[in-house]
Design a protein that fits this description.
Elements lengths: L1 H12 L2 E8 L2 E7 L16 E4 L9 E4 H4 L12 E3 L2 E3 L11 H12 L15 H31 L4 H5 L2 H16 L5 H11 L3 H16 L4 H31 L6 H53 L1
Antiparallel strand pairs: 1-2, 3-4, 5-6
């Protein structure tokens, strides 16, 4: 059959590893195949005998020359055919030097988008480019879920839906410093830097929590909102700066990429340092203003609700 003929020819030309030869600490494959002078398609190879399953009376084994069952022609073609997602693929690989691989991939996809491909053909990244694209998507999903869970936790702790929004204003404020930190250190946006962004989301809210929590406690004791916020800034300034700079100096050795392999993890620390510094200084200014706005909105909604309730009771 076809498979038997192909296997016999492949075994004669390409050969097969039948054993290994050991020479001291080195090992070599022992490949069994016909001599190079006998691999000529037009002369020697077509006369080789292959076993047939056909039963002949009086003969135990029946051999047929290759020339009786196949015609041998030499032509060019791929050494192997590979498939991806049940489609035949032709893969082009390359290494990147001096640029971020994600930017190179985007440039390639932009150029390929100009091609008018026939039906059934498409161009898509595979290998490292595909894994990197999937990793970015998963990280953005993780970042979204982290923000949602953070809001739910703060809402349950404060028993309020608007106060957590004022606290979470510090999250976008930290992104300003995170990207500036990458720019100052000369790092690019990579998988590690995005992991640092996810880590940063859980760190930067501590400053706003210290500020808003103190203001709420002061208001609960009878202090006005404006006075509580004005006192919260100077009083909470010291613990905010202590926690921020302790974290910054703690990850500073990692940001300096000291030691072999440290440049891989350095973007995480650089994102954390830039994000913490920017969110710390911007939180002291922006968060009290946003808290005041959301508090006015909450009082307006609560007052409107009480007014509607009084009208309903009167009716």
């Amino acid at each position: 059959d076809m498979m038997q003929i192909g296997s016999a020819v492949r075994l004669l030309v390409e050969g097969d590893d039948v054993s290994r030869f050991r020479d001291g600490n080195d090992e070599y494959d022992i490949r069994l195949r016909v001599k190079e002078s006998q691999r000529d398609l037009t002369a020697s190879l077509k006369n080789f005998l292959i076993t047939s399953h056909k039963e002949i009376v009086g003969q135990d084994n029946f051999y047929v020359p290759v020339s009786r069952v196949a015609s041998l022609d030499k032509w060019g073609g791929p050494s192997k055919k590979t498939r991806y997602n049940r489609k035949r693929e032709y893969r082009v690989t390359a290494n990147v030097e001096g640029r971020f691989s994600g930017n190179v991939r985007q440039d390639i996809e932009t150029e390929f988008a100009k091609f008018d491909l026939p039906p059934g053909y498409d161009i898509a990244p595979v290998g490292e480019g595909e894994y990197q694209k999937e990793s970015f998507n998963y990280l953005f999903q993780a970042l979204f879920l982290a923000v949602i869970f953070m809001y739910l936790l703060l809402s349950s702790q404060y028993n309020h839906f608007l106060d957590p929004l004022a606290i979470m204003v510090s999250l976008p404020l930290s992104l300003v410093g995170a990207f500036l930190g990458l720019l100052i250190f000369g790092s690019s946006i990579s998988l590690m830097s995005l992991i640092g962004v996810v880590m940063l989301m859980g760190l930067v809210t501590k400053n706003a929590i210290l500020l808003i929590d103190f203001a709420k406690q002061a208001r609960a004791k009878g202090m006005s909102r404006t006075e509580a916020l004005l006192n919260a800034g100077p009083i909470r300034f010291r613990p905010i700066m202590m926690t921020t700079f302790s974290m910054v100096f703690g990850v500073l050795p990692l940001a300096l990429a000291i030691g072999p392999g440290a440049e891989l993890r350095a973007p995480i620390a650089r994102v954390v340092i830039g994000g913490l510094l920017s969110s710390t200084f911007l939180t002291l200014v922006v968060v009290p203003v946003v808290y005041t706005i959301f508090d006015d909105i909450g009082q307006f909604i609560t007052g409107r609700r009480h007014k509607d309730q009084e009208v309903a009771d009167t009716v």
